[in-house]
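Support reply, case 0932

Customer input (verbatim):
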Amino acid sequence: MTPIDAKELYFNIPENAKALEKTLGDLVIQRCISYFRGLHITAVLENLGLPVINPFHTSLICGNKLFTTLALTKAGLPSPKTTVAFAPETALKVLDIMGYPAVLKPTVGSWGRLVALVRDRESAQALIEAREEIRNALLHVYYLQELVKRPPRDIRIIVIGGETIAASYRYAPPGDWRTNVARGGASKPCPITPELQELALKAAEAVGGGVLAVDCMEGPEGFLINEVNSTIEFRGISSTTEVNIAERILDYAVRMVKK
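Our regenerated output:
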């Protein structure tokens, strides 16, 4: 395995295809932190005939919360009630209908960044006005979800090649409602019940499969799938469950090469 810094890559299309094959080998494991950088690199590599974990289609869906919700809904899987709006006035109308509190999320983003708990119309107006002032078209897509009544935790399940590998509860840190470990959340072991296993495998299949982290919530009427992550971070869940996830990813990559 040869680690390569994505920031040092460049592509002369199509002249350096042969050179890339020698440098990158038979398969590439995409671990780029930047969603857009990784997605574009994956597109180039697949066009050159190199298989990538995860594939472009899977990465495209998982990197966008709206695309993920559409894929989960199409597969008939339970997820939080979601509405998308494309103008400030419409977003406010949606929130009035949905009711407060609600959750406003960017369609693209990780680690809980720019995810906001909207408590009332006054805070909704302030948040939406602030987003309108930012020159980022993605922030002008208003992805709104109900605030699910649940314990102060969610569940992350790692799925690799159609197998559920590990699961953990993720608890919100003091003073926050977001459960991201990157924000100080705590990770504790979670048993993989048959119901959780079935949900995680169906969610992974809905987005195209590969190496994925399926995030679930315990709603009043059962589990809800919140997100599916393509470039997974697993330090917390590895230390919590003592499952060597990095090794399992490499085993999966070897199996893919041998196919």
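We compared this against your earlier run and they match. Two observations from our side: The chain has three domains: 6-53, 82-146, 149-258. The two ends are 18 Å apart (CA to CA). Please reopen the case if you see a mismatch on your end.
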